[in-house]
Each structure stands twice: as structure tokens, then as C-alpha cells.
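Researcher: I'm preparing a figure for a lab meeting and need a structural model of a single chain. I don't have an experimental structure, so a prediction will have to do for now. The sequence is pasted below. Please return the structure as C-alpha cells so I can convert it later.
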Amino acid sequence: RLIVRAQTLSGRAVDRTDTTLAELNEQREKLPARFFHDFRSRGPEDELFYKWSIPDEWSARTKGWLITSAGTDNWTSCGVTPHAQVAGDFDITVQFRPVDMALPKAGKHSQVYLQIEAPDDARTQVSAIFTLQSDGETSANGQAREIGDDKSFNYRTIGQVSLASTDGLRIARRGGEVTLIASDAENGIELVVTRYDFSLLPIDPRN
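Model: Understood. Here is the structure written out cell by cell.
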């Protein structure tokens, strides 16, 4: 059962959503390798994770890893990525709870990303994003970073779904296609944001 409180879809047609999710979930259980890390009980050990621009130390008292990013009028980010290469089909999920997303200035965004980057010549990136806009609207978005004829990077929205809250972002690769998914477990929502043709190359770790 798929429950969507406010639905606005754009980008590649999203069809057979229930069937797609059921197939992806079944295939996920058959993947041969698995990595799971629960920040409620374990900190981000340096041998497992690369971190950037995160001022907060992990503490068991917070019942999770509280990450703070001070907003600016220019693009800024902080984040974490595992020291692991991911090859073949994969299914990556990050679960989180936004504690406070500051309302951005006009034309700006406050966002949470799940991002992958291919080691192809274009360094193609695909991101599943939860976005708070300056007008207070929230959505789950898909974004691709592609390279133009002038060798500069172009960022393109490849899907958008109006969604009041999100506590999970997921990217699943099957063959040469990735599926971007957003979820709100508290309200029983899991939906496909978009699909995108993507490299078959392994995803290299960031060190």
C-alpha cells in the first residue's frame, strides 16, 4: 500500500510504483554482501568513515549522531561516507531525523543528501535529496550532475515529489539504472522519486 499525502511528480514517468518497490526489496535481500551501521549505538570510527566539515562529536547520550551544518548564503556542506568500494548491484539507505532545518533565504535551500558518484570520465553524480525551500515547501528530489560540452558541470533535477517529511533516502542500482526512493516511516510512506541511467562502474570510496 502506498500512501502519499501531497503528490506532485515530474521528470521520468514513475509507474508501477508498488511493484517496483516490491521487486527492489526482494532483490535487496538477495544481495551477497551487507554493511549496516547504527549511530545510535556506535560512533563513526575513523577506519570505517571519512567525514568532512562536521563540528559535532558523536555521543551515546544523543541516541544518534547529531550533525550540525551552519548555513551560509553560499553553497556549503558537511557529510560522511564509508571507506568502502561498492560494485555491481547495490542498495543504499540512510535513515535520519531532521531536528531543525532553518528556513533558507529566497532562492536558497536547506537539504539532506544521499549521493553517489561514478568514477567515469564525467564523474557523474546522482543524489536523492530532502529539500526545504524558502517558501516553506518540502519535497524529495532527484538530482544528476552531468558534464557539458564545455566540460563544466551541470546540475539537473531529474525528479521531484512533494512530501511533508522524510526520514529515509535510498538509492538502488540494478544493472545500468538507479532508482531514487524517499520514505516517511512514521506515516507509512515509501515512494519512488525517479529512475536514472547510471554507470556500471564500481563506486570508489572517498579517502
